[in-house]
Design brief:
Blueprint lengths: L8 H7 L6 E5 L5 H14 L8 E5 L2 H15 L6 E4 H11 L11 E3 L1 H14 L9 H13 L4 H8 L3 H19 L2 E3 H14 L1 H10 L2 E4 L7 H11 L5 E5 L14 H4 L1 H4 L4 E5 L7 H11 L20 E8 H16 L8 E5 L5 H10 L4 E3 L9 H14 L4 H7 L9 H13 L4 H5 L2 H4 L4 H19 L6 H11 L2 H8 L2 H23 L5 H9 L14 E5 L8 E6 L18 H13 L2 E15 L2 E4 L4 H5 L5 E3 L3 E2 L9 E2 L16 H14 L3 H5 L11 E4 L3 E8 L3 E6 L3 E6 L5 E3 L1
Parallel strand pairs: 1-7, 1-8, 2-3, 2-6, 4-5, 6-7, 9-14, 9-16, 10-12, 10-13, 11-12, 13-14
Antiparallel strand pairs: 14-15, 17-18, 19-20, 19-23, 20-21, 21-22
Helix pairs in contact: 1-2, 2-3, 4-9, 5-6, 5-8, 7-8, 9-10, 9-11, 14-27, 15-16, 17-18, 17-22, 17-25, 22-23, 23-25, 24-25
Length: about 750
């Protein structure tokens, strides 16, 4: 058991626990993965537990692969053990038991891009205004429903049938019907359908309960209701469940994570053994102390405090910039300075609250010729040519996928116009069959133009050929055949443009992706490959070996670490975000997000804010984040934090101590309110006075006005809808009265 000697006492206590429920409260950087992998090794090597009976589940492919590699390092490879993400595990279960779910075994998985295409189509078919019901908004409601096990019918019963809810119900129902018709599931379905399978089929549930006698769940604080039910159902028989997590790092409540799952674990599983991992192996002492001084302000948490035997290290650097450009300049300058001391660019991360903040940093880094990478931009797998060829491959896997067929029916051009395609869709619906089956009917194809008929016959023939032989071909063979025989590659070559060459290069790189997977598993099937690509998370795209500064949101940074971390935008309204002030537990979740960001830093942590910030076309003075005021002041170096002095006079001053209320009667910066306000006024056809904040109802000829772009002018004439103004700068302009940015002088 010498392999356990590397563990500290708390880690070792957790690793040698065999039977009964266990909750491991693992703080940031406390070695939770090492603890979990050593426990798996201990169960197999010392307790004689079969790898077949162990199930370890986590959230990202990267985490699952790391855990798998570490276990194999400890006890050797070739293990028949499930170390998977929630989605991968559920997909495997559903694939094996597809006949009990109403799907056939070749069902496909729609990614968020595919979902958006389907939902847009459903919105259009129901003649719904996508400005009032944006696709992203409707999808978020549907996802929330599925995470809570709420069907379209349940939604209607719970929320009633007023106009808005009736629209949501109709779209949700249509969306579900399209997925079922296309033999497709989305990510939420994978877990929902598995839970339904377990709850409706005792025989299948018993099989997996007997198989998985020892269950381990990573990042338990991030589980939602369906994941919670999935795990609880599996653990019910043997009660040997070990969950690992940190309530201080629950930052995904906005997408369904329920912090109560970890806070109330001991109520769900009686006689739970609780072990706290509080020794941090990542960060210097001052960083940990500062992070704790923030997170201890949360009430909804289990008490623990990280410590380290590393040196205290640098204090937290704070810089109060003049504006967002000065903030970006300062950060780029510091990266340049530290890089000159031989710290590689990949050792730096800029973690911001919202993606829109990235622009100024990209500009500042480019100006200094500092390489950078934005994590969270357009994924490689979301590029058009990759989506196109994957649509072909999905059709080979599942010819019932109307979404994929619609995408590629004219890629390359085959003479099928949108009107013709719509008629074919209607015909397929009347015949109650897939679009592929309809186009396979030669009598129907004969009704198309000669060019379209020829193109469709060739396409159907190629897909049918590969679909019939998919079990007999390597994925790379299918890929090569589709590229050539569909004419897709030839079409790009004929274009002979810089853009088409770039697309070809991306397609060739995709061949490398396929080869990598085939090298790992020579027997890789098409469905297995498509599953692996579909389940890739954005964090799995992070290449720690690429020597470039990483720009990403704080949410994306969870699970990563960097020698130097910058946290810009530390202002109330930006971080914590303005929405947090309107929810009962909003500030606590934002505070956990701040804690996560701070604990990504290993050696140095910078926090910055801007006195003036322009976002969404609006410039405002800002109030420094309340999280800055919660920091232990003895741990801060650089600019002081502005706080209200405890004096009788009303003058405000700089102070390193004092109260936490900051400015007198502060206005929280709400950047989206201006956009929302403008959209509402435009939709309602409101008067100019509402748009500009100035009452123009008494405007008359001869009045002096000022225009935001043209300056001062004189009103020459006006009617109900227009106003003509003579400006000193540009002469006479006729303006739309409802939206003209003018005010009376």
């Amino acid at each position: 058991m010498d392999y356990l000697d590397k563990l500290n006492p708390q880690q070792k206590e957790a690793a040698i626990h065999k039977n009964g429920p266990m909750l491991i409260l693992a703080g940031a950087g406390s070695g939770k993965t090492s603890t979990m992998t050593h426990r798996i090794a201990y169960l197999i090597k010392e307790e004689g537990v079969s790898p077949y009976n162990i199930f370890a589940v986590t959230f990202t492919n990267k985490a699952a692969q790391e855990m798998r590699d570490r276990v194999e390092d400890l006890i050797g490879g070739g293990l028949n053990m499930w170390i998977l993400t929630f989605h991968s595990a559920c997909l495997r279960i559903l694939r094996k038991n597809a006949e009990y779910t109403g799907y056939n075994k070749d069902f496909i998985v729609y990614d968020p891009t595919d979902q958006k295409v389907v939902i847009k189509s459903c919105i259009k078919e129901h003649n719904v205004d996508d400005k009032k019901f944006p696709p992203a908004y409707v999808l978020s409601i549907i996802s929330d429903c599925k995470e809570k096990g709420i069907s379209p019918q349940d939604y209607s019963k719970i929320n009633g049938s007023d106009f808005k809810n009736k629209i949501i119900y109709d779209i949700y129902s249509a969306y579900s019907a399209v997925l079922k018709k296309n033999n497709a599931m989305d990510f939420d379905d994978l877990i929902l359908r598995t839970v339904e399978l377990f709850e409706k089929n005792d025989e299948i549930l018993t099989y997996y309960q007997q198989k998985f006698r020892y269950i381990m769940v990573d990042e338990y604080q991030d589980t939602n209701l369906m994941q919670y039910r999935f795990v609880k159902l599996l653990a019910k028989e043997h009660n040997n469940i070990c969950v690992v997590g940190d309530d201080d790092q629950c930052i995904y409540q906005w997408r369904g994570a329920d912090i109560r799952n970890i806070l109330e674990f001991e109520k769900d599983f009686k006689n739970t053994k609780v072990i706290k991992l509080e020794q941090n192996y990542r960060s210097h002492g001052n960083i940990l102390a500062a992070a704790h001084s923030v997170i201890e302000n949360n009430k909804g948490r289990k008490h623990k405090k990280l410590w380290t035997d590393k040196e205290k290290g640098e204090k937290i650097k704070y810089y109060r910039a003049d504006n967002e450009k000065d903030e970006a300049r300062y950060i780029a300058q510091e990266i340049d300075r530290l890089n000159s001391r031989e710290l590689p660019y990949c050792g730096f991360a800029v973690l911001y609250r919202t993606n829109v903040q990235s622009r100024t940093f990209e500009e500042a880094l480019s100006a200094r010729e500092i390489p950078y990478r934005v994590l969270g931009g357009t994924r490689y797998y979301d590029r058009k040519e990759i989506k196109d060829i994957m649509a072909y491959m999905r059709l080979v896997q599942n010819t019932a996928d109307d979404l994929s067929l619609t995408r590629i029916i004219n890629e390359p051009k085959r003479g099928i116009g949108e009107k013709t395609l719509e008629k074919l869709r209607v015909l397929a619906s009347v015949r109650n069959e897939s679009l592929f089956d309809t186009l396979s009917d030669d009598e129907i194809v004969e009704g198309l133009s000669s060019k379209a008929a020829e193109g469709v016959r060739e396409m159907i023939s190629v897909i049918s050929q590969f679909s019939g032989e998919k079990d007999n071909l390597r994925v790379s063979d299918i890929y090569d055949g589709l590229l050539v025989q569909t004419g897709y590659l030839k079409n790009l070559e004929l274009q002979n443009t810089v853009e088409s060459e770039g697309r070809i290069e991306n397609l060739l790189e995709f061949k490398s992706v396929i080869f990598d997977y085939e090298n790992e598993d020579p027997k890789l099937s098409l469905s297995e490959f498509m599953e692996k690509v579909a389940l890739l998370a954005e964090i799995d795209n992070h290449d720690a070996g690429e020597n470039a500064v990483v720009l990403m949101t704080l949410h994306s940074a969870k699970g990563l670490e960097f020698p130097v971390v910058f946290m810009p935008g530390m202002e109330d309204g930006l971080f914590p975000g303005w929405r947090a002030f309107e929810k009962p537990d909003g500030i606590e979740e934002e505070r956990r997000l701040c804690y996560v960001g701070m604990t990504r830093a290993m050696q140095r942590l910078y926090m910055t804010s801007a006195e003036l910030r322009t976002l969404y076309g609006k410039t405002d003075y800002t109030k420094e984040s309340q999280f800055l005021k919660e920091l232990d002041k003895s741990l801060i170096d650089g600019d002081a934090i502005y706080e209200k002095k405890h004096t009788s006079d009303r003058n405000l001053g700089w102070s390193q101590g004092g109260g936490n209320d900051g400015y007198s009667n502060p206005e929280i910066f709400r950047p989206f309110e201006q956009l929302k306000y403008i959209k509402q006024n435009r939709a309602a056809g409101s008067s100019n006075s509402n748009n500009t904040g100035s009452d123009l109802s008494d405007l008359k000829e001869g009045d002096k006005v000022i225009h935001s772009k043209f300056g001062e002018g004189l009103v020459l004439s006006l009617d109900r809808s227009t106003v003509s103004v003579a400006f000193d700068s540009v002469g006479v302009k006729k303006l739309a009265r409802d939206i003209a940015p003018i005010k009376k002088v």
